[in-house]
Fold:
Amino acid sequence: MRLSRYFLPTLKENPAEAQVTSHRLMLRAGMVRQSSAGIYSWLPFGYKVLMNIQRIVEEEQDAMGCHQMLMPTIQAADLWRESGRYDAYGPEMLRIRDRHDRDMLYGPTNEEQITEIFRDAVKSYRDVPSLLYHIQWKFRDEVRPRFGVMRGREFLMKDAYSFDMDDESGRISYNKFFVSYLRIYARLGLKVIPMAADTGPIGGDMSHEFLILAKTGESEIACHKDFLEMDWAEREIDFDSDLQPIVDQFTTKYAATDEKRDLEHESTLGDDLVTARGIEVGHIFHFGTKYSDPLGARVTTADGDEVTVSMGSYGVGVSRLVGAVIEASHDDDGIIWPESIAPFKVGLINLKSGDEACDSACLGMYNDLRKAGIDVLMDDREIRAGGKFADMDLIGLPWQLIAGPRGLKDGMVELKNRATGEREDMSIDSAIAKLTAS
Amino acid sequence: MRLSRYFLPTLKENPAEAQVTSHRLMLRAGMVRQSSAGIYSWLPFGYKVLMNIQRIVEEEQDAMGCHQMLMPTIQAADLWRESGRYDAYGPEMLRIRDRHDRDMLYGPTNEEQITEIFRDAVKSYRDVPSLLYHIQWKFRDEVRPRFGVMRGREFLMKDAYSFDMDDESGRISYNKFFVSYLRIYARLGLKVIPMAADTGPIGGDMSHEFLILAKTGESEIACHKDFLEMDWAEREIDFDSDLQPIVDQFTTKYAATDEKRDLEHESTLGDDLVTARGIEVGHIFHFGTKYSDPLGARVTTADGDEVTVSMGSYGVGVSRLVGAVIEASHDDDGIIWPESIAPFKVGLINLKSGDEACDSACLGMYNDLRKAGIDVLMDDREIRAGGKFADMDLIGLPWQLIAGPRGLKDGMVELKNRATGEREDMSIDSAIAKLTAS
Structure:
């Protein structure tokens, strides 16, 4: 992409309305603009990151045998009356009346809807377990939206649902999601700690929140310090195998969110205890027949009996993750994208746009990189070099390829690694080769 | 994908609520389920088609230099008050009041919003022309939603917007979209006729609707019979070249929607006139300063003057296209997907699931096809062969690979082309080779 033709309205100054780093950097890097309180437009640069995260979530959910579908944003109130949640849900639910005076709502979540779909479609044990997910915009009418996309009102979420014959089989589904989530966050370059979370009246141990540690975290958490040394690397998984050992590995040590902290136990941990602030980026939850019972989602067993299916739901905050990744990966100059979700791999800086030799050398590199399948953003604007350096650091592409008239005379360019700050003078060919190989 | 693990609730009977072919087939093929009036959930099979169409639209919009972004579904009423449309828009607008009693709405379109974004971000002629698009769910509270996804209330639309220094430059942008649309519809296997459409008070000739001819079309159209013979094949385009000759080629002959028909002119056409019913699948429209003027979207020229930018908007009904493609491509047995958007290329029918030899031969072919990068759906359910044949015809995958114990004894399978009905007995290797090569 040529920056001169792109839509990337960066800001030099810190916007007054942004309280946290990620919000500030997303505004400055031209990723989002607020449309109304807690509601954002994603400009092209931000949209690419959002979709890169979505793609990783999709790939990992597909890999575990979960099927993608899409439920609508607007739901009938009557469906929520079946589960009893229409009246129970507070003012965070955006309630709507349509032209025929029917009560509707903008879905904050989809348990009722997916249960209805399953109930009407599946009648036999042969079609169970069933794992379904969708990635759709949700709305929660927060009384005080803040932190940019981290606590917005309209937000993009992946929510998945499992249907099993019984709770034991439900645990197998639950474990698949648990392990799939470890893979998702590892691919995003995030260290995420699974923490025991509230299960509500159902009880049991099958509810975990996934949190990253960050100073701007919304809640205080406590965990065993071994979590900080845990191996988060992506692991190869056979999802048909027994995943309990992996789940155990990440749940045996103490880790708890605010509401679940056990101060008595913490007092026994001594120096092994760490407290910090965390940002929730996922939540998985087995809730048995909470929805299948009132909505009547029943299937026949091999013996011809009828059972109410056992369910769980599994959420990842896709738009929130954009902010969370930035909270975890930035410096004073701007964002530092992990390569897995960087909107472009390389930023090519033409230090003297308008100079024929510079333009032609840069265009050559630009075309070579694109031919090699590398996404590159070329700064070909006719502005001062200082502005180009600042913008390139701000938007945080993993590699900067810097070309000016002096170096180009000898066929040399500079290659800078955004994360380490390392710079290297090298020939054009070596630079291209290095970027193509890495 | 193994059908035994997939979520594909096909229906044997025609659902009573479906009046048109595409709606009937989408319900029967397990593509969608109605959630409430005019609002649908997309089940996995339907969602794949929807995304395949979206991908083609994205590729073609990207190729013409239009940048993808994403605007939210919920908009502030105040923004629409700036353009005067909040009061002008009828009951089709879904009006919402949030918890702070602010007037909001579910966007039926995005002219105001994109104009606000452009106005706040772009100040100089250097950043114009600017072409932006997004693909987002819209809501129009139709009084009588019908025809399934063809006239739903919540629908997926690609809407693009152009910003130019003047109307002459606006025509260049308009022509790019015109030609890009020809490519999109060609890739979807559709014959689409561009028809002069209403420009409203602005006048001029820069408004076209793109219609496919279908018996179930919602409006009567008339056109020169030469359109039926027009060459719709995908063409290579240099979008920086003058596209007027291509636009002329598709607009010189007479073609008009209901409201624009010129009966006097039609009477001179004699046998060259064709009347038919049409389904609108796109609409492009240059409207000058209609929104940029009230919203104050102005940029400075090279001379330091200020001008109000000239705009156009360009829509493709993405979810509606799923229905439109089916209206254009089906037979008595079911859907016939064009390969470009087929959710799977091959349906592999195991005639005797549970038979060890059959299962193992089918699994071998399944793995070979997948290794070759071919999307295949294997019907491994333990049901009668008749049900498998009927379902496979119904869901309309381009190729059926049929394997039973009798043929497999001699290493033979049957390959059926869904569109032509042609069947061929061949060795497993030849079948795989043919599917891999085609």
